[in-house]
Amino acid sequence: MTLRARISTDLKEAMRAKDTLRLSTLRLISAAIKDRDIALRGEGEDRELTDSEIMAILTRMTKQRQDSARAYEEGGRLELVEREQAEIAVIEGYLPRQLTETEVQAAIEAEIKALGATSIRDMGRVMNALKARYTGQMDFGAVGPMVKSRLS
């Protein structure tokens, strides 16, 4: 079952169960996917999003909610922090398990070795290989500096 189909099925189940939080979050996910579909058609591409593209959307949505939760926490709005964290939990249910720090380091080393990367000029190739293999499993904002320091 594709990720899109799983989200659609879960949306229908949330409607039947009258689970308002899950339902609203799944509607936000569906809307983000449809927005991207429309953008693709505007670019002249008539295809459906792949699971990895949907995972990228979900990862972005998770990051946005983490940023919002942090801002709400600084502002003392704890009820909004709880809502954002609940939405994050729903979204993360569709993402693969996040790699640990040790697993990320091992993945970086393996890609550097597989590509024969030796200098900072190879960083783009290493990052592209990591993104292709580990989409949704690691935070590439944090991985970039790790790869850079390893190749320096």
Q: What can you tell me about this protein's structure?
A:
The chain has 152 residues and is an all-alpha fold. The protein has 2 domains: 3-92, Uncharacterised protein YqeY/AIM41, N-terminal domain (Hypothetical Protein Yqey, Chain: A, domain1), CATH 1.10.1510; 101-151, Arc Repressor Mutant, subunit A. Helix content is 76%, strand content 0%. The chain contains 7 helices and no strands. It has helices spanning 3-17, 20-42, 51-74, 78-92, 101-115, 123-134, 140-151. The mean pLDDT is 90.
Task: Give the topology.
Blueprint: H1 3-17, H2 20-42, H3 51-74, H4 78-92, H5 101-115, H6 123-134, H7 140-151
Helix pairs in contact: 1-2, 2-4, 3-4, 5-6, 6-7
The fourth-level CATH homologous superfamily of the largest domain is Uncharacterised protein YqeY/AIM41, N-terminal domain
- From the N-terminal CA to the C-terminal CA, the straight-line distance is 42 Å
| Helix proportion | over 70%
| Total of domains | 2
Q: How large is the share of residues in beta strands?
A: under 5%
Described by strand count, sense and barrel closure, the largest sheet is:
none
Question: What descriptive keywords fit this protein?
Answer:
152 residues; Hypothetical Protein Yqey, Chain: A, domain1; Arc Repressor Mutant, subunit A; 2 domains; globular
